[in-house]
Amino acid sequence: MTETVLDILSWILLGSGSFFYVVGSIGLLRMPDVFTRMHATSVSDTFGAFLMLVGMMLQVEPSLVTLRLIIIIAIILYTGPVATHALARAARHAGIKPLLDDDTGNDREDAPSK
Predict the structure, then answer these.
(1) Nearest-CA neighbor of 35 among 92, 79, 95?
(2) Predicted structure pTM score
(3) Domain containing residue 77
């Protein structure tokens, strides 16, 4: 009985993670500029990977495999947002502006005042 509940919960998590990956892929294709594409894919990839790895943890018995999956979750939850932030900063440094950029830069401390 308990195995059936764990299997059902595991498949729900695996299906939900797959759903987030599909939504992120659609966002990558449909969004208008690099920054919104990055946001759509990074959020859905990180959360989708988290859900899928938790679903995998429920499929295996508690063992060294579970510990390895926990380590992979920690690495993905840390490196995904950091990589996205680095890509966004590199895009801004290259001169790419967001589609709806109306920032004049006056909110920064190093910006000259008018």
Answers:
(1) 92
(2) 0.77
(3) 2-93
Asked, for residue 114, whether it belongs to a domain, the answer is no
Give the count of domains, the chain: 1
Q: What is the C-alpha separation between 2 and 86, in angstroms, rounded?
A: 44
Q: DSSP letter at 32?
A: S
| Residue 109 resides in a domain | no
Lookup: tokens for 69? 């999956």
Q: What tens digit of pLDDT does each residue of 8-22 get?
A: 999 999 999 999 999
Answer whether residue 82 is part of any domain: yes
Question: In the structure encoding, which two tokens stand for residue 60, read together?
Answer: 């295996």
The 8 Å CB, 24+ separation contacts for 19-28 are 19/48, 20/44, 20/45, 20/47, 20/48, 20/51, 21/45, 21/48, 24/48
* 7 Cβ contact list (under 8 Å, min separation 6): 58, 59
Alpha helices (runs of H) in the chain, residue ranges in sequence order: 2-30, 34-59, 64-93
Q: How many Cβ atoms are within 10 Å of 41's Cβ, its own excluded?
A: 20
